[in-house]
Amino acid sequence: MKELSKVLLAFGGNEAGMWGEPADALKRALENLDRHGVTLAKVTPQVITRPLGLAAQPDFVNAVAVGETALDAEGLLTLIKRLEWMAGRRPGPRWGPRPLDIDILDFAGQVAGWDQRHDPMQPAHLVLPHPELHRRAFVLAPLAEIAPDWRHPVLGLSAREMLAALASGA
Question: Which of 101, 117, 119, 149 is catalytic?
Fold first, then answer.
């Protein structure tokens, strides 16, 4: 039996797609992850947040989950990209509206892609942990609820500490 890896995932969406409204798409994504070998132990309640980047778009529905999987990081990325496509996500402007977005926040504490210059407009294929999570209150607040002591493998700060730093402007 393959060893299970702990994963932290972020979910969002702000437009209707093939799976319905964003709240429905998030629910279906959670169900599909479970069917495809990603067992989610905790999922935060959905919250409504303002969009980043392009302001002229609907608010987002967001949630964060912690779980485990026997997939490797690339296999998980392939799965979530397939789920996003099934929900109706298509190429569009960066930070634009979308029916479903799933980000891998952390995969078993692995570090990948941090040795390259990070350009949020041209992200690497897979960067672990997620390169922007420490700058996003809509990710850190729910993450601090379900995994307050999780430590960022590059920055060494807990979810709670990163959220406090972001709130204080540090």
Answer: 101
Name the one residue in this structure whose structure tokens are 């949630």: 63
98 is catalytic: yes
Residue 31 belongs to domain spanning: 5-168
94 labelled catalytic: no
Output the pLDDT for position 118.
Answer: 61
Q: How many domains does the chain have?
A: 1
CA 135 to chain centre: 13
| Distance between CA atoms of residues 74 and 48, nearest Å | 29
Mean pLDDT of 112-138: 80
- DSSP, collapsed to helix, strand or coil, labels residue 11 as strand
CB 87 within 8 A of CB 28: yes
**Which of 47-61, 90-104, 108-122 is predicted with the least confidence, judged by mean pLDDT?**
108-122
